[in-house]
Each structure stands twice: as structure tokens, then as C-alpha cells.
Write a structure and sequence with these properties.
This is Dynein axonemal assembly factor 11-like CS domain-containing protein. Pfam families: CS_DNAAF11_C (PF23602), LRR_9 (PF14580). It is found in: Cell projection, Cilium; Cytoplasm. The chain has 454 residues and is of the alpha/beta class. Among the domains are: 171 residues, Ribonuclease Inhibitor (Leucine-rich repeat, LRR (right-handed beta-alpha superhelix), Alpha-Beta Horseshoe); 81 residues, Immunoglobulin-like (Sandwich), CATH 2.60.40. It contains ten helices and 17 strands. Strands 1-2-3-4-5-6-7 form a seven-stranded mixed sheet, with no helix packed on it. Helix 3 crosses helix 5. The longest helix has 35 residues. It is elongated and about 175 Å long. The chain starts with 5 loop residues before the first helix and ends in a 31-residue tail after the last strand. About 9% of the residues have low confidence.
């Protein structure tokens, strides 16, 4: 017997951020549930409840859901309508494909002021003579019955036929109840025999025709469960070997992680230099339940598990697992994992750039005693964008010219005039010896066009 549990409800609250107490819409369809319970305590604000495709034989524990507007109980094992008289806000009730025989049980819905739509298609009671006329008269607030609009002219017409419809409905209902009691007895005997010879006549039971009753639906469900259990217990050794061969290896013999994509998901691993982190985007399915996705970040690898299948990627640099974040997009359903790096950024940001060395002039960079480069004491005013472009396009060079000095470096060594020897010491000026002037030759002609000798 499958029962409604808190974990089952919590797995279906992804659209409400996992909060159960404020949940307004809940879908528990096709879960093989056999009883409605706990919902009025866990989800008192429910407005929409889907319970179709289960094995529920009775409507119960729903009357305290005062805000409930839509209840879907199609494809269950209901035989009568009950337990809804206190659902004051109920507007739409779907009871399609059940086993409702007691049509007079619909009178319990007369106290629902907001009930406007009722679906009873596929129930035995819909074959009663005068069924539609009787329902419209008993529930005067209905606007739509079995998908067909109730018009004003039809309402006036069925009021005149109500007495006849009530009589025929009563007769047909008694006949259907007698038939149902016989079917119940036959089903109980068949279930006892089938339980004893279940393994031997399993194929024969599925091939034989069976009656359409709630007991048959329950028996089919139990047989499917037993068949599934037998297949799991009778697994051959070859299948176990195949399963072991299919196991994914995540690490090498020496413990190094490996790149694995057993889930066969599309992903993108990028490096964000501004935030100094790795960003992994995994294209998970849009409507995938969040409980089926797990993410584990380690210093040298990241592992994402989707429905038991692993996607593992090795990082190029060590990351900080404690600061990693994982989020899913509400639009696409993709999983985005951000993993900050352990090492500092290789390129500093614009706020931490080193101070720019400003070009200096000769007067401020060179002193009279030495030719050393000097940083200016105070920064120059901020340059305009046009000046920066000119400086970046043209290279700046320091201008170097010949320095004027009183020292004559061509006469570092002094010569003694009397002895003609060379003496080392302090640099001094050259002293030329006095040479007597030679007499002018009598044949000398002074030509003014010839420049004088220096």
C-alpha cells in the first residue's frame, strides 16, 4: 500500500521553493496511492489538487481544504461521491473513469455554492435513463456537465422531466447495485485462486478476460509489483557481470580524478578572469526535479550527478570548494556552478594598476653635478584623453646633449717645462714654452687676400 508521505509532497514543491505549508498546487498523479491523508495538515492552502491515476476507493480528509477550487480524482476506484460538503470554494470536480454507481450520492454536493463544472464520463451511472436531467435538477448551479454547456432552455426543459428522470434513475441504480454485489463476490474468489497459483498461471491470467471492477484494478497492480520483484531477484550472473562492466571509473589507481560524462549532458566550462573563477554550465532538463540533481565541488574536480549518472570534470587550477555556488535557471533549467580559484588573479584589476612613471624634463631630472634620473616629487595633473592617445601612439625619449664643463679632459697629464718629464697629479692647463720670433724675409709680400695663420 502506497501512502502519502511528507517527502513525496516535498519533492513536488520545487515551484514553491520547497515550502509545503504555503503550497497552493500539488500533483500526486499515478503514484498508486490508496488513501488520501495528511494533506489538510501539511498543505492547508491548497487550491488545485491532482490525484488522478491512483487506487483511491474513498474520498476522505479533503473537507478541511477550504480554499480548494479544483479537484481531479479521475481514474481511481471511487464508487460514490462523499466527503466534499465542506469544500466551500470548489468550482471544478473531475470524477472521470471511476466506478460510481450510487448517483444519488451527488446530493452531497448541493451545499457547494461555487461548483460550476462536473465531469462524470466513464462511470456506470452515466448510462442510467434520465441521468443528465436528474443531475442538472439536483445541482442547479452547474454551468457545465461532462464537457457540455448547460443552457437556460435545457434547464427549463429538465425541470419538467425531473419526476420521470428520478423514477428511472432509481430503478437503474438498484439494478446496477445488485450486479455490483455479484461482481464483488466473484472477484474475491478469483483473487484467492490467483494468489495461490500466481507464479504458475501468470501468463494465462493476463490473457484471460476480466471484469472491469475496482478489485480487478487492484489485482493488476499487485501482479505488476510481484512480477517486478521476481525479475529483480532472478537476475542471472551474466547480468551482474554486465552491470559491473558498465560501472564508470572516476579515479585512477593512484587517486587522480578522471573526466567522465556518463550522463551524456551538454556542458560548457569557462574561465572568468574578472571574478577569478571557473564557471560550469550544465544543460540539465528543464522540468527535472531538483531532488534528482546533486553537485559536489572538490579542490581539483567538480562532480554533477543527474538521475544517478555522473558528469565529472578535472579543474586546471585548484579552487575553493567552500565558496562555490550552484544555481538552476528558472527559465531554461540549466545548472550553473561558480568555483573561485585558490590562486590570486594573474592580471591585476584596473583599480590596482601600478603608478605610471611620468616623463621628466632635463631641468627637473638632471642636476648640475650629476646626470642621474630623478622621479618628480609631485605628480603632474591628469592628462586628457587626447593627450593619452598621443603619448600611446608616439614613443617618448629622453633628450641627451653635450654638457659644458670647465675641465679640459684632453690635458689630464702635466709636462715639466724645464726637464721635459711627465708628472702625474691634478689636471692642469698646458703651458707652452716661449719661442723667439723669426725675422721677416726680405722677399715676403703681404697679401691681404690670404687669411692670417692662427
Amino acid at each position: 500500500m502506497v501512502r502519502i508521505t511528507l517527502d513525496m509532497v516535498r519533492k513536488r514543491t520545487e515551484h514553491n521553493e520547497g515550502h509545503v505549508s504555503t503550497l497552493e498546487e500539488l500533483s500526486l498523479h499515478q503514484q498508486d496511492i490508496e488513501r488520501i491523508e495528511h494533506l489538510h495538515r501539511w498543505c492547508p492552502r491548497l487550491r488545485i489538487l491532482y490525484l488522478q491515476g491512483n487506487l483511491i476507493p474513498k474520498i476522505e480528509n479533503v473537507g478541511r481544504l477550504r480554499d480548494l477550487e479544483y479537484l481531479n480524482l479521475a481514474l481511481n476506484n471511487l464508487e460514490r461521491v462523499e466527503g466534499l460538503s465542506r469544500c466551500e470554494s470548489l468550482r471544478k470536480l473531475d470524477l472521470t473513469a471511476n466506478f460510481i454507481i450510487d448517483l444519488t450520492s451527488l446530493t452531497s454536493l448541493q451545499d457547494l455554492p461555487c461548483l460550476a463544472e462536473l465531469h462524470m464520463t466513464g462511470n456506470p451511472c452515466t448510462s442510467y435513463r434520465g441521468y443528465r436531467a436528474w443531475v442538472i435538477c439536483v445541482l442547479p448551479g452547474l454551468e457545465e456537465l461532462d464537457g457540455a454547456r448547460v443552457t437556460r432552455s435545457e434547464r427549463l426543459r429538465v425541470l419538467q422531466e425531473f419526476s420521470e428522470a428520478a423514477a428511472t434513475v432509481t430503478v437503474d441504480q438498484e439494478l446496477a447495485m445488485e450486479k455490483r454485489s455479484k461482481e464483488r463476490e466473484n472477484c474475491e474468489c478469483e483473487m484467492e485462486n490467483s494468489d495461490e497459483e500466481d507464479e504458475e498461471n501468470d501468463e494465462k491470467w493476463w490473457k484471460d478476460a476480466s471484469s472491469h471492477t475496482p478489485e480487478t484494478r487492484v489485482a493488476m497492480h499487485r501482479r505488476l509489483v510481484r512480477q517486478r520483484d521476481r525479475q529483480n531477484t532472478s537476475r542471472t550472473p551474466h547480468e551482474d557481470v554486465r552491470k559491473q562492466l558498465r560501472e564508470v571509473r572516476l579515479f585512477t589507481a593512484d587517486g587522480r580524478p578522471l573526466n567522465v560524462n556518463a550522463a551524456k549532458l551538454t556542458f560548457q566550462l569557462t574561465e572568468d578572469e574578472e571574478s577569478n573563477c571557473f564557471v560550469l554550465e550544465v544543460n540539465t532538463y528543464r522540468h527535472l526535479d531538483a531532488s534528482l540533481v546533486t553537485c559536489n565541488v572538490e579542490p581539483w574536480y567538480v562532480r554533477v550527478t543527474v538521475k544517478g549518472k555522473v558528469l565529472q570534470l578535472v579543474m586546471l587550477e585548484e579552487v575553493r570548494p567552500g565558496q562555490a555556488t550552484a544555481q538552476r535557471s528558472q527559465v531554461t533549467g540549466h545548472l550553473v556552478v561558480k568555483m573561485p580559484k585558490l590562486a590570486p588573479p594573474r592580471f591585476p584589476s584596473s583599480a590596482s594598476k601600478p603608478e605610471k612613471i611620468m616623463p621628466v624634463t632635463r631641468s627637473s631630472a638632471f642636476s648640475s653635478s650629476a646626470s642621474n634620473f630623478v622621479r618628480p616629487s609631485s605628480p603632474e595633473p591628469r592628462e586628457t584623453s587626447r593627450q593619452k592617445e598621443q603619448q600611446s601612439s608616439h614613443s617618448n625619449y629622453l633628450e641627451v646633449t653635450e654638457r659644458k664643463s670647465s675641465v679640459d679632459y684632453t690635458n689630464i697629464v702635466s709636462t715639466n717645462a724645464s726637464t721635459g718629464s711627465v708628472s702625474s697629479g691634478q689636471p692642469c692647463e698646458t703651458r707652452r714654452s716661449l719661442v723667439p720670433a723669426r725675422p721677416i724675409s726680405p722677399d715676403f709680400v703681404d697679401d691681404p687676400s690670404v687669411p692670417p695663420l692662427e
